[in-house]
Structure of SET domain-containing protein:
Amino acid sequence: MGKKKSKDNNTNKADSQGATGFDAAKQGKIPAKWYPQAPKNDPAVRLGLVNASVGYGLFAARDFAKGEFIFHEAPLMTALFKENSSADEATVNSQHRAYADILTDTHKTQVLNVAFPLLAARNGFPPPAFAQARQTLDADLGMNLVHGRYAGTDLTEEQYQSYTNALADACMNFFKFYAFEDKTNPDGVLLPIIKMANGAPAPTTHACVYLLGSLVNHCCTPRTPKRTTTVEGDAHDILRGATRRPPIGPNIEWRIGDSGLAKFVKPRHIAVQARRDIKAGEQLTWDYGKREKGFLCECDVCHAKLTDSLCGVL
Ligand SMILES: C[S@@+](CC[C@H](N)C(=O)[O-])C[C@H]1O[C@@H](n2cnc3c(N)ncnc32)[C@H](O)[C@@H]1O
């Protein structure tokens, strides 16, 4: 009962924030492309498993038009962050403090351990049983979302087990994998996190971890953005002449805080919008940028490149 009450409180808070943004949009104070077009309680995203090596991903729960606002959410936790910072005491302490704060809130801890089994494993928590995980994800995945959006999951028990079983030797640097750089410090000066080639200490700034935003996977930006392909599509196209094939490449983009695009997005909140038209069920991806990624990319652009090179060989 207590849990339900706190969720309702969250929703009410979100609604009142949403109303402000909504009014501002109606008055033309924010660009129409950020206007929340979907009715309240229309789910924006679902959590699913891409495959065992890529892990979780976010999927569109409905169609989105190019430029459409998809969701925005408050950070679950923020901490200091430095590129390659695992030896930096202040940064590590700050990250531990952020995590400890979350552990004082049982409800948030449950959600965190289900949404981020990597983090749970690192901190010695076995992933919860599927039945509990499913309930938590369905009910609470969108608890940080504003504008009344919510999210749930389509994860099956089999998928959940296959992913969580693979996590025994899970990652050591949670923030490195999941945090967003909040590039705007309180004075509005940009503090990009860059890898220092000369070994000098990298700049430190705040990093934010989000419940949904941090679960978005990477997709490379295609060199020629109009290039589109599918294996079957290629074969048919050759026979029938070129037809329009589904687009590839990152389909969303994000901003943190009020970056001049959305006045209702508070500092450190992340806001996500469609970079092109998106169909329900499509995985939402963005380009992580040039930073060292530390994984073998399995995005559709890399798959297309591989297909192209194999076709070239055959
Ligand atoms: C921000 S997390 C995204 C959520 C993650 N898939 C999960 O299940 O927790 C980033 C991690 O996801 C995986 N990942 C993201 N994009 C990927 C891609 N294009 N190819 C392979 N792995 C990817 C990598 O393990 C990466 O370190």
Remarks:
- The chain has nine helices and eleven strands.
- The CA atoms of residues 235 and 241 lie 10 Å apart.
- Residues 1-26, 28-40, 167-172, 185-197 have pLDDT under 50 and may be disordered.
- The chain has two domains: 1-71+144-161+210-314, 75-127+167-209.
